[in-house]
Amino acid sequence: MNHLLSIKELSQQELVELLSLAKTIKANPSDYRTALDGKSVVMLFEKPSLRTRVSFDIGINKLGGHSVYLDQQNGALGQREPVSDFAANISCWADAIVARTFLHSTVEALAEHGTVPVINALSDMYHPCQGLADFLTLAEQFDDLSQLKLAYVGDGNNVTHSLMYGAALLGATMTVICPQGHFPDGKVVLEAQKIAAAHGGELMLTTDVDKIAGHDAIYTDTWISMGDNTSLDDINDKFGPYQVNSTMMQKAGAKYFMHCLPAYRGVEVTADVVDGEGSLILQQAENRMHAQNAVLVTLLS
């Protein structure tokens, strides 16, 4: 493991070990207080962020490291100077690069031209740090994730991609339920289904909301991704039947609700569900830091 660009690049063993290490760091933070002693991590952010920026910044500090934050005020990646030069220069000083970018190709270029580990903190294709936090959260609820039945409802996006790869590697069952025309990337689906078959899991896709029955947890995300100028009025009728509400939770028999946040109450999920007893949203948010710390320790120790 030289970088974390996507969960699909992990082996099953690497994924399981990362989740185990994250649990250990969370339970015994003092044991890792100097894990990144003398290490510096540059955080390159093309997109604004709450959870990603704060969880990485504080997490690096808790490990004894130092973080440097660079946003678009310093020039968008690839515009002021080539991404290759950016990566090579940062590699002269920093021990790792955390990148939150519009294009996945930018993250790949940083890894190709830099000489230090690169962590994808979100791109248009993948959100591996979120996926790791999500499966860490589920691992705290279920002893055997291979027996998990997870449903994703709504717009197929970078979060969906990472969840599909993670579920596939862990041998879990995952159902993706989307409106027609809003499914995840077809190539990603085929790759994830192949990985799932190799590990005893199953990945199913459908437009039929009634297929929600028999799942342990329901996961949703915003219907309009950051940077998308689509009007809610234009998609409300199409997505309306895919709103996660108490009726859907009961129909699924699901005990838990998940969302990567920010959540829009009354849109993709009702307030009684997102703020309800079975909501795991704050555990997911906290676990971003622990999962990312596990990645940092693995890459830099």
Automatic annotation (TrEMBL):
Report the domain of life of the source organism. Answer: Bacteria
Which key words tag this protein in UniProt? Cytoplasm, Transferase
| Top EC class for this record | transferase
Q: Tell me the compartments it is located in.
A: Cytoplasm
Query: Which InterPro entries does the record match to this protein?
Result: Asp/Orn_carbamoyltranf_P-bd, Asp/Orn_carbamoylTrfase, Asp/Orn_carbamoylTrfase_sf, Asp_carbamoyltransf_Asp/Orn-bd, Orn/put_carbamltrans, OTCase_ArgI
Q: Tell me which Gene3D superfamilies the record gives.
A: Aspartate/ornithine carbamoyltransferase
List ligand-binding residues for L-ornithine. Answer: 158, 221, 225-226
Q: What is its EC number?
A: 2.1.3.3
Name the residues that bind carbamoyl phosphate.
Answer: 100, 127-130, 260-261, 288
Q: Which residues form the Aspartate/ornithine carbamoyltransferase carbamoyl-P binding domain?
A: 3-140
Query: Which residues are in the Aspartate/ornithine carbamoyltransferase Asp/Orn-binding domain?
Result: 147-298
Protein's pathway: Amino-acid biosynthesis; L-arginine biosynthesis; L-arginine from L-ornithine and carbamoyl phosphate: step 1/3
Reaction(s) the record says it catalyses: carbamoyl phosphate + L-ornithine = L-citrulline + phosphate + H(+)
Q: Which HAMAP family match?
A: OTCase (MF_01109)
Q: Which family does it belong to?
A: Belongs to the aspartate/ornithine carbamoyltransferase superfamily. OTCase family.
In Swiss-Prot or TrEMBL terms, this protein is called Ornithine carbamoyltransferase
